[in-house]
Design brief:
Elements (H helix, E strand, L loop, with lengths): L4 E4 L4 H7 L5 H11 L6 E6 L2 H9 L3 H11 L4 E6 L12 H13 L4 E4 L10 H9 L3 E7 L8 H13 L4 E6 L6 H12 L6 E5 L6 H10 L4 E4 L13 H8 L10 H21 L12 H5 L3 H13 L6 H14 L9 H14 L11 H8 L11 H8 L17 H8 L8 H7 L1 H25 L6
Parallel strand pairs: 1-2, 1-8, 2-3, 3-4, 4-5, 5-6, 6-7, 7-8
Helix pairs in contact: 2-4, 2-11, 5-6, 7-8, 8-9, 13-15, 14-15, 18-19, 19-20
Length: 466
């Protein structure tokens, strides 16, 4: 038994889960120096949806955010979430883009890269793992936890061993939907710890109300580290409150060593932000509730929000129950993929289509993304897909049974050409690669802001254009 390591998620997943990833760097800045003094094992501060949200909604450069956080957190490891061959986007990218993104992430301040694949297809982690090792970063390879007739503790442990052999420095059990129940967590962590020699961390959500109990049982089973969120942005679709777990473990062999008074300083800062978000509607009270149906439908909080939004736009909000039932059917048909980005969006949208557009039966309107999933463009699904169903969805298209990225040509050179009119830093190439239209709009805004600043400076200095 040893002290439990704490990864604080408030700078990334906590506000992604509760407030649609809208926390600004300006809101983080006043508390960063204090967070660096707490003694956290790591701060999850980047990756996931933050990269897209920074440019799309906040007019921020995600790379500048990372550098700013690093400037104020020199004593605490910074951690990011990385979707394997998808990086932070929604398709597979060429190996040279993955390698360059890893290089620049570490150069700008990331210490730990938590790398996962939505299908738990290890082939989709190969390039990211090798690149992280090459750049001297810590590889935390993640297992997407899910429940199906094809997923077992032994299977997850074997996957963990495979990731260890690929060079992972630690393993994360990523329970994105909050499905892992306490006693099952105990058995799962025991099984994995008996299989691998490297540390194991647990990431779970509070959606079904199990978070704290699940973490406690995992700790008793020997888990090395856990993810928590400072209390104002905890619970609901977020995580277990940091202070509650720290208090629970004080004076035990698992004592985290963190000081509750220091954590209170952090909590007071984020409490003001929480109140602001509640008042503005950025946090919907619905996401703060316990939803035990998460165990039934296995739908993560973000996916549920997307489904509600799609149905509301179609004027069919009353169909939510049918859609949630259909999600389970679509997932079964597609080989039981875990529901996490991007598979959650793919399965969810197809379920909506099956419910709303079924005059000619289910799958009468199939999205190109669902076709790609069935064809193998995202990798191998956990269970074999029925051949007759496959042909119904993709017709005579070739099946992809190799690593999908093997057929993607290098992209960096063409990206350099496309980014040239806007480029101010090397990292702009990667912003363009992941979200081209969003990035260009941001680059144009950035240029306009710089022009106005320069013009204002000229006026202040008595220089006027004639």
């Amino acid at each position: 038994m040893s002290k439990v390591l704490i990864t604080e998620t408030v700078l990334r997943d906590a506000h992604q889960s509760l407030a649609a990833t809208r926390m600004t760097t300006e809101e983080m800045l006043p508390i960063l120096d204090e967070m660096d003094k707490v003694g956290y094992y790591s701060l999850e501060a980047w990756g996931g949806a933050t990269f897209d949200a920074c440019m799309r909604f906040l007019n921020e450069d995600p790379w500048e955010r990372l550098r700013t956080i690093k400037d104020h957190c020199k004593n605490t490891k910074l951690q990011m979430l990385f979707r394997g061959q998808n990086i932070l986007g929604y398709r597979h990218y060429a190996d040279d883009v993955v390698e360059y993104f890893v290089q620049k992430s570490i150069a700008n301040g990331i210490d730990i890269i938590r790398i996962f694949d939505a299908l738990n297809d290890a082939r989709n982690l190969e390039t990211a793992i090798k690149a992280t090792i090459k750049e001297g970063g810590h590889v935390q390879a993640a297992i997407c936890y899910t429940i199906s007739p094809f997923h077992t503790n032994e299977g997850f442990a074997n996957y963990a061993k495979q990731l260890e052999e690929m060079g992972a420095n630690s393993i994360c059990v990523k329970d994105m939907s909050g499905l892992l129940k306490p006693y099952e967590a105990f058995q799962l962590i025991k099984t994995i710890k008996n299989t691998v020699k490297i540390p194991v961390q647990l990431h779970t959500h509070y959606t079904a109300g199990l978070g704290s109990m699940t973490l406690l049982k995992a700790i008793e089973a020997g888990v090395d580290g856990v993810d928590t969120a400072i209390s104002p942005l905890a619970m609901g679709t977020s995580h277990t409150p940091t202070e509650s777990l720290v208090a629970t473990l004080q004076g035990t062999p698992y004592d985290t060593g963190l000081d509750l008074e220091r954590l209170d300083v952090i909590a007071k800062h984020f409490n003001a932000i929480r109140e602001k978000y509640l008042a503005s509607g950025l946090i919907d009270p619905k996401v703060l509730k316990v939803d035990v149906n998460a165990l039934r439908y296995q739908v993560p909080g973000g996916m549920l929000s997307n489904l509600i939004s799609q149905l509301k736009m179609a004027g069919k909000s009353d169909k939510l129950g049918e859609v949630l039932e259909e999600v389970a059917n679509v997932r079964r048909d597609a080989g039981y993929p875990p529901l996490v980005t991007p598979s959650s969006q793919i399965v969810g949208t197809q379920a909506v289509n099956n419910v709303l557009f079924n005059e000619d039966g289910r799958y009468s309107r199939v999205t190109k993304e669902f076709k790609a999933l069935v064809r193998g463009e995202y990798g191998k699904c956990p269970a074999a897909i029925d051949e007759e169903f496959k042909r119904k969805i993709i017709g005579d298209a070739d099946i992809i049974d190799y690593r999908p990225a093997d057929k993607i040509a290098p992209e960096i050179d063409s990206l350099r050409t496309r980014v040239a009119p806007y480029q101010e830093q090397d990292e702009d190439i990667l912003s363009l690669a992941l979200f081209e239209q969003v990035a260009i709009k941001f680059f144009e805004w950035r240029k306009a802001q710089k022009y106005h600043l320069d013009a204002n400076a000229d006026v202040a200095n008595g220089i006027h254009s004639i």
